[in-house]
Specification:
Layout: H1 19-50, H2 56-70, H3 86-95, H4 103-106, H5 109-132, H6 137-149, H7 151-159, H8 163-183, H9 186-200, H10 206-224, H11 231-261, H12 274-280, H13 282-289, H14 293-307, H15 311-325, H16 331-349, H17 363-379, H18 386-410, H19 417-428, H20 430-443, E1 451-453, H21 455-463, E2 471-472, H22 479-484, E3 493-497, H23 506-510, H24 514-517, E4 522-529, E5 535-541
Parallel strand pairs: 1-2, 1-3
Antiparallel strand pairs: 3-5, 4-5
Helix pairs in contact: 1-5, 1-7, 2-3, 2-21, 3-5, 5-6, 5-7, 5-8, 5-17, 6-17, 6-18, 8-9, 8-16, 9-10, 9-11, 10-11, 10-16, 14-16, 15-17, 16-17, 17-18
Length: 543
């Protein structure tokens, strides 16, 4: 059996027969908190959608799932390989109802429903984790509310972002890792490993969490079985249980990417990959954050201080206290969530990320978990003194007081660039304009495959289309062949956005100059613009 020497449980443990009933009460309370959060997140999602406050990243992930079902060439590989697939896969069952409720696609509500559910589950798991860390019932309730109402969690859960799905899996891993650290049950490592492996199918940051968890399990397992027979083998088995699934997920996803698109890591692809997108926006990013690694780290630190100012200090203090007390429970959230936070900041400092404010989301549960642990330490024991109770109350109030600062950061266009851009896009009427593009093309009565377009940019139009099969899109297997000779293949029109908006448009790259004058192959027949000057043009091929 793995890790045969049990470690005395820290404040998270509940000894004796009372453990079962008490944990059931925790689960019921956490479930109620999660249900309330789901109602809240869903209401906010509907309000944001009604006001066209949509993150393009969230809508594009819904679009990837939509192509699997409703494109000219529906197939699973249409989901794409630049981003990890699970957020788009999770939206597919909801997208089946698009003919009955078009807003599931056109307004990306399918993604919002998925993220709202994930956010609600993360609230329930946060409540459970706080119980494992020793926080009392009242403190668990308050700190869970702080977590649920934090703008990064609330807005991410309502807006269809992929971070809530990553968060719920990281918290799932953290809860089961706490149980292993305090109880040495190897079955908990199965949960840890599966959670980390699935998390990699959501976002690349999970690779850092999987590595950190593997190292922690290796060290703890080795120390537990030190001096026993077969200690290295036991430590290796534990590590494989915890980290093997994330390694397998990484390898299988890379293998699928190589087999389908010819690239082991499509996120580094030169045309549509994340690296290419960040490179295209590097000038704009550097204007805000400053150029160079040091400037980028300073910018990320400023974001962190304004969204979760207590997270890192409390985590460090909590680690010191835990080590002095010989307790290991806090190592779990610090390892899982801290590695995700460190990965995001490191990637941005290396110039490989946009540095959106939502990338700091792991700091929120990290700070809440550390506060819960420290509050539990202060109030632990049979009869905690008045000073200790006051200290725990002050710590909890400090977490509550940090919420207004985080909400103010969401309104700061320098720190919350993506959110500010979403407000500008809504004010300019971009999405209504793109829905009008889809409606006007539908009114032309065109047949299947009549319009060719690059959905890396035109996905809002295709999602709003009455019949998406009218469009030849980049994920279709015959896209390149049809683009090479459109008229011969029955393609009559091309839909393009202005080059400043679509710098790597496949149609414009195949026919240089088409945006300006048709490149001698087409003539413009229609143009649409929003309040910011974002323009779409429809060209008819003439030769």
């Amino acid at each position: 059996m793995s890790g045969t020497t049990l470690v005395p449980a820290g404040p998270a443990s509940v000894p004796g027969a009372a453990a079962g009933p008490r944990r059931r009460r925790w689960c019921r309370a956490g479930g109620r908190a999660g249900a309330a959060a789901f109602v809240c997140y869903l209401a906010v999602a509907l309000w944001l959608s009604a006001h066209d406050l949509v993150f393009p990243d969230a809508m594009s992930r819904v679009a990837n799932g939509y192509y699997v079902l409703f494109s000219r060439d529906p197939h699973l590989a249409a989901i794409g390989f630049v981003w990890n697939p699970l957020p788009s896969l999770a939206a597919i069952p909801l997208l089946l109802a698009t003919p009955l409720w078009p807003a599931l696609a056109s307004r990306a509500l399918a993604g919002c429903l998925v993220s709202a559910l994930c956010g609600a589950c993360s609230v329930a798991l946060m409540h459970r984790l706080l119980g494992r860390l020793g926080a009392g019932p009242a403190m668990r309730l308050v700190l869970t509310a702080v977590f649920a109402l934090h703008p990064l969690v609330l807005l991410g859960s309502a807006a269809g972002a992929s971070e809530p799905m990553l968060l719920v899996l990281c918290l799932y891993v953290a809860v089961h890792l706490v149980d292993w650290l305090t109880g040495a049950d190897p079955w908990q490592l199965v949960h840890v490993g599966v959670g980390a492996g699935v998390a990699y199918l959501v976002r690349y940051e999970a690779l850092a969490a999987g590595l950190a968890v593997g190292v922690l399990v290796l060290v703890v397992s080795w120390r537990r079985s030190r001096g026993g027979k077969g200690a290295p083998a036991m430590a290796l088995v534990d590590t494989v249980l915890a980290a093997g699934p994330v390694v397998a997920a990484f390898g299988l996803w890379a293998l699928a990417s190589e087999a389908v698109v010819g690239s082991w890591l499509a996120t580094f692809a030169p045309q549509y990959g994340n690296s290419a997108q960040v490179g295209a926006g590097r000038g704009t990013i550097d204007v805000v954050s400053g150029a160079g690694s040091f400037a980028h780290l300073r910018y990320m630190a400023e974001q962190l201080v304004n969204t979760a100012p207590l997270a890192v200090p409390l985590a460090l203090v909590g680690l010191v206290v835990a080590l002095r007390r010989g307790e290991r429970a806090l190592l779990s959230p610090v390892c899982v969530l801290g590695s995700v936070l460190a990965f995001q900041n490191l990637v941005f400092s290396c110039g490989m990320s946009f540095g959106w404010l939502r990338f700091q989301i792991a700091a929120v549960p990290l700070g809440v978990a550390a506060a819960g642990y420290l509050a539990g330490v202060l109030t632990g024991g049979a009869r905690p003194g008045r000073a200790r109770r006051a200290g725990a109350a002050a710590l909890t109030l400090a977490m509550v007081a940090s919420l207004p600062l985080a909400w103010r950061a969401e309104r700061n266009p320098r720190l919350a660039r993506e959110e500010s851009r979403a407000v500008d896009v809504a004010a300019a009427g971009q999405y209504p304009m793109e829905r009008r593009v889809a409606a006007d093309i539908a009114a032309m009565g065109l047949g299947r495959g009549a319009v060719i377009t690059d959905v890396a940019y035109s996905f809002p139009v295709v999602l709003s289309a009455e019949d998406p099969r009218v469009y030849v899109i980049t994920v279709d297997g015959d896209f390149d062949a049809l683009l090479a000779d459109p008229l011969l293949n029955g393609v009559s029109y091309a839909l393009l956005a202005s080059p400043d908006t679509a710098p790597a448009d496949a149609v414009a790259e195949r026919y240089p100059g088409m945006w300006e004058d048709g490149a001698g192959r087409a003539e413009m027949v229609r143009q649409w613009s929003d309040g910011r000057g974002l323009t779409w043009r429809l060209y008819r091929f003439t030769g």
